[in-house]
Specification:
alpha+beta; Alpha-Beta Plaits; single chain; 20% helix; 14 strands; four-stranded antiparallel β-sheet; 254 residues; ten-stranded mixed β-sheet; 3 domains; elongated
Length: 254
């Protein structure tokens, strides 16, 4: 077990309650751990797990908090998405795929797979992105139809038709589900501005076949192989031979 002992001896340590994963005593010898996310201790002492090789490809999903910059570094010293990542993942030279503006939150993919990142940001392979947008007050049917049919922004850019539905109404607000097939900068905020709508919260909840699920704000998880393969195929790529090993879906706080 990571050079500490043999596999049989490791089973004995587990049976004695001497092994913990993230400060929780392990009760099963078959418990799976992710070297990138999990802290393993034996009798209270941390175990150094072998990290994947330098050529390993990594695919990570984070629920980006608000007031975090979607860049690797920021000259103004603001918190970046790299600061959200656990230390074990920061060493893999991941970079964000696309942008999510400073005051928006939600699904953001990070990877060191340049080929996939290029496909995901290229207009030809642009995957639908789903957002939940909370608006102050009411939204008229006429404004919903304007969004659905496409409109021209004040700057002159033409928006393609988009899917827009009301998710719920609560406490003087309306939550809209908006599906975009374009990648214009700050598209939703600019569209709402031109329609006289005040955005209180903007959250990306899905990108192509990948969805945020119940991952809480500021949490991180590694995509499992099935998700990676589905994402690759969605942009016309075949699954890679070198992928991050299968991991559990337990999220980690950034």
């Amino acid at each position: 077990m990571a050079g500490v002992c043999s596999r049989r001896a490791a089973d004995d340590l587990v049976a004695q309650g001497l092994v913990a994963v993230n400060d929780v005593i392990v009760t099963s010898a078959g418990t799976k751990v992710d070297p990138a996310l999990d802290c393993v201790t034996v009798q209270g002492e941390p175990v150094v797990l072998s990290a994947p090789g330098e050529g390993q490809l990594h695919y990570v999903l984070i629920n980006k908090p608000t007031q975090v910059v979607t860049t690797v570094s920021d000259p103004q010293g603001r918190r970046t998405v790299m600061d959200v990542l656990p230390a074990r993942l920061q060493k893999h030279r991941l970079f964000p795929v696309g942008r999510l503006d400073f005051f928006s939150q939600g699904l953001l993919l990070l990877t060191n797979d340049g080929e996939l990142a290029n496909r995901l940001t290229h207009p030809r392979w642009h995957l639908p992105k789903v957002y939940h947008v909370t608006i102050r007050g009411e939204v008229s049917e006429a404004k919903l139809e304007t969004m659905r049919q496409g409109m021209v922004l004040a700057e002159g850019e033409t928006l393609a038709p988009m899917g827009v539905d009301i998710v719920n109404r609560q406490a003087g607000t309306v939550k809209l589900g908006i599906t975009l097939i374009q990648g214009l900068n700050r598209q939703i905020r600019r569209m709402c501005r031109d329609l006289g709508l005040t955005v209180l919260r903007l959250e990306r909840v899905a990108q192509g076949p990948i969805d945020l699920g119940d991952l809480r704000e500021g949490q991180v998880r590694v995509l499992v192989p099935e998700e990676i393969n589905t994402l690759l195929r969605a942009v016309g790529l075949e699954p890679k031979k070198r992928q991050a090993p299968r991991t559990g879906e337990r999220p980690a706080k950034g």
